[in-house]
Write a structure and sequence with these properties.
Blueprint (H helix, E strand, L loop, with lengths): L2 E6 L5 H10 L7 E8 L6 E8 L2 H10 L6 E7 L14 E3 L2 E9 L2 H8 L12 H12 L4 H10 L3 E9 L6 E6 L4 E4 L4 E4 L11 E4 L5 E4 L4 E4 L5 E2 L4 E2 L15 H7 L1 H12 E2 L4 E2 L17 E6 L1 H18 L3 E5 H7 L7 E7 L5 H12 L3 E6 L5 H5 L2 E4 L12 H20 L5 H12 L1 H9 L2 H11 L4 E6 L3 H16 L2 E6 L16 E5 L6 H12 L4 E6 L1 H6 L6 E4 L8 H20 L17
Parallel strand pairs: 18-19, 18-20, 20-21, 21-22, 23-24, 23-25, 25-26, 26-27
Antiparallel strand pairs: 1-4, 1-10, 2-3, 2-4, 5-6, 6-7, 7-8, 8-12, 9-10, 9-11, 11-15, 12-13, 13-14, 16-17
Helix pairs in contact: 3-4, 4-5, 7-12, 7-14, 8-12, 8-16, 9-10, 12-13, 12-19, 14-19, 15-19, 16-19
The structure holds fructose -6-phosphate.
């Protein structure tokens, strides 16, 4: 997970940038670098030091070849595009521009093509092209500030960026779209950082940039602009250094912060499973799992609890459709005592955020005792499941503090979808061009999640109505059936409103008796092969008085005009990745309903984050 720090200082910055990088080590990285505007003797120059591996390698290099300057940026890189070596390490240079970046520039191939006649690229990264764009814009006569703003408009993807420009009067440029970025306010100095932890020793006064914001920072000023280039004021939060790790930023609850972190957390998951540079999912060999062969497996057994079990249930559809692999999904507490008939040609995969859930761990151990290969898809890599399974598969969502799981869910889905595609490729069911399409659909996830988050205000308004209900139903078909179950779980666990998820086609076999005038029914139905069938089921409950909230895309909204009480329009996405996007809406709906009701969102009654008892 890349980390950024930058200082517009009144003192030399190198040592402090190094210290900030050390604070970012917890995010994981494979190389690091620092660039400063060297203003020591004579005319200024842009200089950098970069090193593969640990930050102490960079520190040793700087001891041998010191860097002097009052304005600088630094970066820890977790490779996404291009090998983790010194050449690909940030900061990247182009002419007068030095740049650090966290996230994915989705349209970098196109931009590189556009610049290939005038520019020479040194790296395999998606990042370098941004430095060239800014430098090119300055060559055409724009100021550093205007060149930065104009270049941002050409980028698609989810990212945070820090920039210094040689010859541009002590200005540090920063932008946030999808990936978080904070500004620290100092005394005669100002800073940027990936989070408050990076800035902890420098400043306790933090401004969290909002989605689409960009900023120009000098020693004594901070100007912030929104996505339309309009100057804006953003609130200053006072952060205590020791609390920075568990800081909510300018979010009211950890759950909301974690919902908003999903463009970034999903991009961290993608980094592990997808080779965005070559538009393919990583092979098991690339994931260091040579001992596993999708071709030799006859069956998969996915085992989990709660939200993780719903992620597993969605993955069943993916493994069956993309890889033609039979899949059993089991709730761990049932599986472990059921004495299931297992064959040695099946593999058990435990899915767990914490990696410590007692039932899931016991189920994993049971499978091992029966001689099955086992894997654990976990967020906490130091957990028992990660240590005990034959293969530990990280989701890299970062610490999840809110009790209700949100970002771990979308990262579990991202990992599982990537693995299902990898199985489909290995089993000869997915050819190169289909793999490319699927990998591209995956890489667009962070941006599309960020786009979906813009529905927040609409969802908050709809949640007011839902907060007045005694019970609610969630309906979906196919992959959106388990998502309906997850939506209902989110609502009941934090708002305490009774909620049920159903397969849309199943309702008329009994539960429809519960529908009465005004019963809220949330229907999850993107335009896909099952859309019309779901809409028919929606009409069956609408005619019985249900109050319908349809979550769909623009095509779906057009085709259901006048049939619903409210419609939420999500971005149009590929059939495979749709549940990851639609998950954001049900999370926000549950969150705002709970806030309207005044419950303890982050620590709902009777619940614990890690359930280590059975
Ligand atoms: C619901 C929730 C729980 C967990 C379940 C499994 O929001 O968080 O249902 O998903 O307790 O926990 P892990 O994933 O840690 O095994």
């Amino acid at each position: 997970m890349c980390g950024i720090i930058g200082i517009a200082g009144n003192q030399p910055v190198t040592d402090r940038l190094l210290e900030g990088l050390k604070r970012l080590e917890y995010r994981g990285y494979d190389s690091a670098g620092i660039a400063v505007i060297n203003d020591d003797n004579g005319p200024s120059t842009l200089v950098r030091r970069r090193a593969e591996g640990k930050i102490r390698n960079l520190e040793n290099l700087i001891n041998e070849e010191p860097l002097e300057g009052h304005l600088g940026i630094a970066h820890t890189r977790w490779a996404t595009h291009g090998a983790p070596n010194t050449m690909n390490a940030h900061p990247h240079f182009a002419g007068r521009v030095g740049l650090v970046h966290n996230g994915i520039i989705e349209n970098f191939t196109l931009l590189r093509d556009q610049l290939k006649d005038t520019r020479t690229f040194q790296t395999e990264t998606d990042t370098e092209v941004v430095a060239h764009l800014i430098d090119e814009a300055m060559k055409s006569g724009l100021s550093g500030k205007d060149a930065f703003a104009a270049s941002l408009k050409q980028l698609t993807g989810a990212f945070a960026i820090g920039v210094v420009i040689d010859g541009v009067d002590g200005q540090l440029f920063a932008a946030r779209r999808g990936s978080p970025l904070a500004i620290g306010l100092g005394d005669g100095e100002n800073y940027i950082g990936s989070d408050a932890i990076a800035l902890a020793s420098l400043s306790s006064k933090i401004i969290y940039l909002e989605e689409g914001d960009w900023a120009v920072i000098t020693t004594d000023s901070v100007e912030i602009f929104d996505a339309n280039d309009t100057p804006v004021e953003r609130a200053v939060t006072i952060v205590s250094g020791s609390l920075a790790a568990a800081e909510k930023g300018n979010y009211r609850h950890f759950m909301l912060k974690e919902i908003y972190e999903q463009p970034e957390s999903v991009s961290h998951t993608l980094t592990h499973y997808v080779d965005a540079f070559h538009h393919k999912v990583k092979t098991l060999a690339e994931l260091d799992m040579e001992g596993l062969d999708w071709n030799k497996l006859e069956r998969l057994s996915l085992i989990a609890c709660g939200t993780a079990a719903y992620a597993a249930s969605i993955a069943k559809y993916w493994f069956e459709q993309l890889a033609h692999m039979p899949v059993d999904v089991d709730i761990a507490s049932e599986f472990r005592y059921r004495r299931p008939a297992l064959t040695k040609k099946s593999m058990a995969i435990a899915v767990s955020q914490s990696g410590e859930t007692a039932d899931t761990l016991a189920a994993l151990r049971y499978c091992q005792s029966k001689g099955l290969q086992t894997a654990a898809i976990v967020n906490v890599m130091s957990s028992s499941m990660a240590r005990e399974a034959d293969f530990a598969m990280p989701i890299n969502a970062g610490p999840e503090i809110g009790v209700a799981s949100t970002k771990a869910f979308t990262s579990q889905l991202t990992a599982l979808l990537s693995l299902a595609i990898s199985a489909g490729v290995r089993r000869g069911l997915i050819d190169g061009s289909r793999e490319k399409n699927l990998a591209e659909a995956l890489t667009q996830m962070p941006r599309l999640i960020a786009e979906t988050l813009t529905l927040d205000a609409d969802i908050e308004a709809l949640a007011l109505d839902l907060s007045k209900a005694d019970s609610a139903f969630y309906l979906g078909r196919g992959v959106h059936y388990p998502l309906a179950l997850e939506g209902a779980l989110k609502l009941k666990e934090i708002s305490y409103i009774h909620a049920e998820g159903y397969a849309a086609g199943e309702l008329k076999h009994g539960p429809i008796a519960l529908i009465e005038e005004g019963t809220p029914v949330i229907v999850i139905a993107p335009t896909d092969a099952l859309f019309e069938k779901t809409v028919s089921n929606m009409q069956e409950v609408a005619t019985r008085g249900a109050k319908i909230l349809l979550i769909t895309d623009s095509e779906g909204a057009k085709n259901t005009a006048g049939m619903t009480d409210a419609t939420l329009i999500c971005p149009t996405v590929s059939v495979e990745t749709a549940p990851i996007i639609y998950a954001i809406t049900v999370q926000l709906l549950a969150y705002h309903t709970a806030v309207h009701l005044g419950t303890d969102v982050d620590q709902p009654r009777n619940l614990a984050k890690s359930v280590t008892v059975e």
